[in-house]
Design a protein that fits this description.
Layout: E1 6-11, E2 18-23, H1 36-58, H2 62-80, H3 87-91, H4 101-119, H5 127-137, H6 175-190, H7 197-211, H8 218-232, H9 244-249, H10 251-264, H11 267-303, H12 310-322, E3 325-327, H13 328-335, H14 339-351, E4 356-357, E5 366-368, H15 370-377
Antiparallel strand pairs: 1-2, 3-5, 4-5
Organism: Breznakia pachnodae
InterPro entries: Fic/DOC_N, Fido, Fido-like_dom_sf, Fido_containing, SoFic-like
Domain Fido: 125-276
Length: 381
């Protein structure tokens, strides 16, 4: 049956026969119906993003917070795909020695995000950019054998273990149909069609997930595209929106609503869900930035009362705001201070309940900026 979002077609014959989806080009026809609920959410989402943008202009240490949000988004987006890692794993100062593949996947997502934000300054939002992002995302991790940085040339499918093409939950377009669909999507991305940017990225994300152009990593690339597109359109000034926070909390509904578009052509329910995700994620980010800024001001002012040791303690404090789990030797090297000076500063920070020691191991002791991590950790467990 064909409807707004596309149709299923039969491939091969006999026992080998299977049905793949052929998506209709965007924008949908007829146009997205702007219901009262969608209009209300659209206004609320833009207003909340404006507040988030304003914060990034007047809070002096906001870049530190945002670097943490990139990590939080990377972690939660990877967790949606089943990656087993925690915020502490990702921030561990001995991460280079950590052979945990789950952590490596999150680290790759962070690298891919940072690369994408830099690359889009010189390369338009395009299929080529998505392939480059994918290459970084899949480097040295599970799925690295599945053609990193290349669109697939074989059929893939979505389903649990043991599922096959004939009983898969969803079969994306064949490689030939996928190539056409990606080209159509690229055209839509660059069209000056007057569609609101939040609605447009909702449609782009749906279409990308539906096309599933890579053999692995599609979900992570598809979610990474959201901040990238909104920043490219100047709707978002910094990558402070961690939309995977909401998508992870509502993971089953997230997948069900994407399926609803494919099965019934009902884009409106997906757009509404996506706008709810943007609004709730932006609102949460605003709350966290205020909390982190209040914590910064409180501890900054406390350190100023420490007399002669204030300067060295402040240097270590500035470092832990970017690296909330530290090890003395690495910290000393990073900020060009002696081991003993850092050790004394850490002792002062512990006495003033800013740092806590994580383990009793005298060789590799690590110290945690616990109050800071507690604010960031919410939603990542």
């Amino acid at each position: 049956m064909e409807h707004r979002s596309g149709h299923f077609k039969t491939n091969l014959s006999g026992e080998s026969a299977y049905q793949s989806f052929v998506p209709s080009p965007l924008p949908p026809y007829p146009d997205i119906e702007l219901t009262n609920e969608i209009i209300k959410l659209l206004i609320s989402s833009h207003a909340q993003l404006a507040v988030l943008n304003d914060l990034s202009c007047y809070i002096p240490n906001v870049n530190l917070f945002i670097s943490m949000y990139v990590r939080k988004e990377a972690l939660m987006s990877s967790q949606i795909e089943g990656t087993q890692a925690t915020l502490e794993d990702v921030l561990n100062p001995t991460i280079e020695e950590n052979s945990n593949r789950n952590v490596a996947e999150v680290i790759n997502y962070i690298k891919a995000s940072e690369f994408a934000l830099e690359r889009i300054q010189t390369l338009p939002f395009s299929a080529r950019l998505l392939r480059e992002i994918h290459g970084i995302l899949m480097q040295g991790v599970r799925g690295q054998e599945k053609n990193p940085a290349e669109f697939r040339t074989s059929q893939n499918w979505i389903g649990g273990q043991g599922r096959t093409l004939s009983n898969a939950r969803y079969v994306p377009p064949t490689p030939e149909d996928m190539a056409v669909a990606i080209s159509d999507l690229e055209n839509f991305i660059h069209e000056e069609d007057g569609i609101d940017s939040l609605i447009k990225i909702a449609l782009i994300h749906y279409q990308f997930e539906t096309i599933h152009p890579f053999l692995d990593g599609n979900g992570r690339v598809g979610r990474l595209m959201i901040n990238l597109f909104l920043m490219d359109k100047d709707v978002l000034l910094t990558p402070a929106l961690y939309i995977s926070y909401y998508l992870k909390q509502n993971r089953i509904e997230y997948y069900d609503r994407l399926t609803e578009v494919r099965m019934k052509g009902n884009y409106e329910q997906w757009v509404q869900f996506f706008l709810e995700a943007v609004y709730e994620s932006a609102k949460d980010a605003v709350t966290r930035i205020h909390q982190l800024n209040d914590l910064h001001n409180k501890n900054h002012n406390l350190i100023l009362t420490l007399g002669r040791s204030a300067q060295s303690v402040m240097e270590v404090f500035n470092y832990i705001e970017a690296n909330p789990i530290i090890e003395i030797g690495k910290t000393a090297k990073a900020i060009n201070m002696s081991f003993n000076s850092v050790s004394s500063a850490v002792k002062k920070l512990i006495e003033n309940k800013i740092l806590v020691q994580e383990n009793e191991n005298t060789r590799n002791r690590t110290f945690i900026y616990k109050d800071y991590l507690d604010i960031l950790r919410d939603g990542t467990e």
